[in-house]
Amino acid sequence: MRYAHLLSEAHPTLPHTEKENQRLIAIAGGLTEKNGLSPEEAELLEMLLALIQKFEDRHYATKRAAPHKALLEMMRAHNLRPKDLYQVFGSKGTTSEVLRGKRSISKAAAKALAARLNVSTDLFL
Fold it and tell me: Of the candidates 47, 65, 54, 94, which has an alpha carbon nearest to the alpha carbon of residue 108?
């Protein structure tokens, strides 16, 4: 019965506008500031966070960069030149093709790049 009361107060629905999303964020914020949530409040908070996440994934999703573009950006950030990667790719020609997006980055090369640049291999695959 307590859960039904919480639901009727919060009226959690999938937000379709920023205003609706902000309302859910405010309710969730109030719950997170409480010490020792009841099981019903914890369940409501979990539902609110799922609804907020769904809205934000749909409205604020970022596009993933192409692997060669990510590599170019990492090279810029680490002051690397193409010749610094010849050993990773095995040759000047392969390095050039990868950097132009003409050839994909192999799993082995992605692993080597990730280790060298201290990032996830997912960035290059």
Answer: 94
